[in-house]
Amino acid sequence: MFLFILIGITIITYYSIPIMPSFSDNKDPLIRSLIYISCAGGIGGIVYCIRGFYQHLFEKDFDNNSTWWYIFRPFLSVVMGVFVYFLIVGGLLSIGQIATADYSKSIMFYCAISFLAGFSFTQVSNKLEELASTLFAKKEV
Questions:
Q1: Which domain covers residue 82, as residue numbers?
Q2: pLDDT by residue (tens digit) across 46-66?
Q3: Using CA of residue 56, residue 77, residue 19, residue 113, what is the dihedral sign?
Q4: 52-80 burial string, b = 16+ CB within 10 Å, else e?
Q5: Tell me: the pLDDT tens digits for 68-92?
Q6: Is residue 19 a part of any domain in this protein?
Q7: Distance between CA atoms of 95 and 93, rounded to whole angstroms?
Q8: What's CA 35's distance to the chain center, in Å?
Q9: Are 38 and 82 in contact (CB under 8 A)?
Q10: Rounded Cα–Cα distance for residues 33 and 18 (Å)
Q11: In this predicted structure, what is the pLDDT of residue 117?
C-alpha cells in the first residue's frame, strides 16, 4: 500500500511541477527547460516502475526486497534525464545526425530524450560507462 501511495504522490508531483513556472516571475528559458527535462525523466522512471510493478505482481514473482528500487528509481531517472541533457548539449553525447545543440532549440526533443533516459535507466547507464571508459582510458605508451 505504501508503494501505491508513494507512486501516486510522485506522479502528481512530476505532472504539476512543469506548470509552476507559468505562475512564477522566473522567465529564464534555461530554468524552465531544466524543470521540464527533469520532470520528463522522472515520468519515464515512473512509467517503468508501474510497468515493472504490475508485471511482477501479475506474474506473482514480486520480491519485497526490490521495493526500494521502485521507490528510488523515479528520482534516479530525474538525475539521469538531466545529465543526459547536459551531455547532449555539451557535445559529449550525440544523437543521430544532430551537429549542434542548444537549450532553446527544441524542448520537446530534449524532454523525449530525458523520458527515454528515465525509462531505460540501465541501458543509459551502460552507454555512459562506455563513454566514460572512452574518455578516461589510459593511454598506451
A1: 2-135
A2: 888 888 878 877 887 877 777
A3: negative
A4: ebeeeeeeeebeeeeeeebeebbebbbbb
A5: 887 888 889 999 999 999 888 887 7
A6: yes
A7: 7
A8: 12
A9: yes
A10: 9
A11: 93
